[in-house]
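hiii, so i know i said id send this last week but things got crazy w the move. better late than never?? heres the sequnce for the chain we talked about at the cafe, plus the structure i predicted for it. fair warning i was half asleep when i ran it
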Amino acid sequence: MSQSLQFFTPSRSPYVILPKLPATSNVRFPVINFPSRKHSVTITKCLSSDLDATSSQVLASGNGQSGVAGVLSADNVAAVPSHDSGAAGIEVDAVTEAELKENGFRSTRRTKLICTIGPATCGFEQLEALAVGGMNVARINMCHGTREWHQTVIERVRRLNEEKGFAVAIMMDTEGSEIHMGDLGGDASAKAEDGEIWTFTVRALNSPRPERTINVNYDGFAEDVKVGDELLVDGGMVRFEVIEKIGPDVKCRCTDPGLLLPRANLTFWRDGSLVRERNAMLPTISSKDWLDIDFGIAAGVEFIAISFVKSAEVIKHLKSYIAARSRGSDIAVIAKIESIDSLKNLEEIIQASDGAMVARGDLGAQIPLEQVPSAQQKIVQVCRELNKPVIVASQLLESMIEYPTPTRAEVADVSEAVRQRADALMLSGESAMGQFPEKALAVLRTVSVRIEKWWREEKRHEAMELPDVGTSFADSISEEICNSAAKMANNLEVDALFVYTKTGHMASLLSRCRPDCPIFAFTTTTSVRRRLNLQWGLIPFRLSFSDDMESNLNKTFSLLKARGMIKSGDLVIAVSDMLQSIQVMNVP
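okay and structure toks below
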């Protein structure tokens, strides 16, 4: 026998009695009495016999039907006969299911992993290897490739989810209208050596591309730069000094050698300061970006990341556009913080968006390098306070583009991002064009798991005070319930938090609290399930459920026990955005 506690008020759905409520509230709370069911606290007995009605429901997810390379096989998936053809089922990511079965609740990774898909990883087998390795989100970068190529990648990821039982979401990253290089005439890269003279031009170049000549997308480039300016490629990965201007051509000497990549971002500095007047005049979303956004909406991507966001108005405009073009769409807009303007308007941009990305490469080209770490920490903190997922990106494991092991400094950098409790880490060139994409992903996974385990073992609960984010009385109640549930989960050392959510909002509130245990987020739609795959600590499931919490729990226990993902005696806390309550119970 186990017990479930719910707290009621006479006129509202059940919820926990908590001290922090709006001062204007006139709701009166009843005195808590024991043990009669008619009083404020109800004790619901959950017996194993309660599960009989749902224990024979078929598991319809299809997870592991064909097996997942070295992780799952059909034999791992438990299924039982159904009473009828319309029996309900549950869907969960195949790799997470295997981790839970083999290692238990506490072993699951909380930090989510994003892989940029490129020539090195666009095949179905390579995508499957990344999914098996822990990829939660696949990023397609519209700076590179054609829309037809990206459409093929999207179709392969969707097929992978359907056939292999994954829940990989798709993020489309726009190019932005900042100054950048051309496509290098089709070459994958070009090497600039120290002292070499290169020509940057606004002229359209015929094929083949003249040696050491690069096209620039901004027509006013030759007019704006001056002899003596310093030109930074891709945030300073390669540096040039402007030595001569001849009409539309700008002659530059390489001062810091390195690898030039197609469509790399360009910035130029004068007298130690960034020259940004022209960039400030360029639109955030270019005409090409709008066409790419239409493509992303039609393809049904889960996230659209906007480059070089300068203000909240751009985000609001885009969200209105998406809503008009795709009624009922769940596409989330991610603001990339990678410019001085972004930092100046940080809070309003994050508040308007559905999440943020710390794009450290381009950000490091616009602010002094020594300011990047503190900027990263501030962005992560503001996102956490405002309940928005945050991604740390750029150059996490840059050396692994060419080498099979990372530098120790890179490992320390990854560890710091995990310690800051960022929602997700992102691979860029490491997975798109690197020689060791699977190994790079494995480094992110193992470092994340180890630092998270250390954090829990050391009981390093943050002292960060999370400000209220609720904008209504009902939202404030939900927020207080999630704060209390997370605190209870840590104090009682429960095995898992269960949250039943149709929109994902209460799941995100729980994730914001960063509890020690994993969060099982049950939702009814595939789109919300994939979108939750970006947020820290959430294990998203697709499950049909009702407003009857007792029925939902019985059904969930039955299905998860049949899959071997939970066992009798496990201690869980359950919350729901349909009934504002907290329930504590042992699995029957």
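btw Residues 1-88 have pLDDT under 50 and may be disordered. thought thatd interest u
miss u guys!!
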